[in-house]
Predict the structure.
Amino acid sequence: MNFYTVGVLIPRKNIIKTIISVLIINLFYGKKHTLTIYGDGPLKPIVKSLSTIFDSIIYKGYISKEILLSKITHFDAFLLFSKREAFGLVYIEALKESIPIGCLKDEGISDLIEEYNLGIVSLNSSIKNICITISKLDNYKINKHKLTEALNEFKKEVVLKTYLNS
Amino acid sequence: MKVYIITENWQYSDKRVTRVVNDYANALSNKYELKVFHVAKVYPLVMKLFRRLFYLPLSLYNGMLPIDIYKNSFFTTDEFSFTKTSRNNFTLKNIEFSSEDKIIIHWLDTALYVLSSIELDLLKKLDLTVVVHELHPLKWLSIDGNIKILMNVRVLSRNTKISSYLQDCGINSKVIRSFI
């Protein structure tokens, strides 16, 4: 499977753990998963080094939102096990393209992902649990009807109605 | 009917937040009399120095620029009333509310700061909504007064798992999922 992740390369995004998890699954379970990483940040040297060592890790650097949206369509799943993820717009961008998500429980939009079966939620950010989540995403498909229902919750009129309690 | 928005981050350094707040404010101002209070945090000199000294580790930890966040630029509009004030000087007690008015407070820290200073009777009378994008149960439960707030205001959050957590502690909360 071809996974991708997007974000500022900082510790709380758990990018390094995600890379290690993909490598473990490839090494011990004979899978040929790839992980493409978009983003820039303090951890860039480490991510870049890992991408030069392992063929399955592809580092693409910073990418603008417009270009990103055109690139993600050929990926099979989106991985971001970020902590304290407030908005999680990248999750919504993935959902708009019907791409299943791997994320952390109780972060960002994990409520929605669990309720509408839009991906797999990891119980915590341990490498063991991230590995389990990635394995469960193998050949995971999103139900289009459920996805439409979920995306309705983001409509401005729906949000405004809740916002004003009307 | 008036809608009061109280927020710590207006014209935030993070453009995504600015866009969200501006979008909804513009949508509301067409229907309601909108009043926005931008209550900015003001740091003491020691804290400013600390933040500047530890700029790099804080950036690494938060993934954002900790010094620049609160350098909110001024915002003026003809569409609605906008007041910028320091958080220390802001209190709900000075505002005359009618029973129909709605008060929406953005961000957990601001809500706790503003609401912890008002009496329970007033808290119950007001139509209050707190919009928290990240809801940490421990933060709510760390101060006794927060329970009182949590039981009497609507909380909009992207994640509603906290309500079952609080239910286990015997606290009935009004946490509603919202993707603002």
Observations:
- Chain A has one domain: 2-164.
- The two ends of chain A are 44 Å apart (CA to CA).
- Chain A touches chain B through 30 residues (CB under 8 Å).
- Helices of chain A lie at 15-29, 44-53, 65-71, 89-96, 110-115, 127-136, 144-152, 156-164.
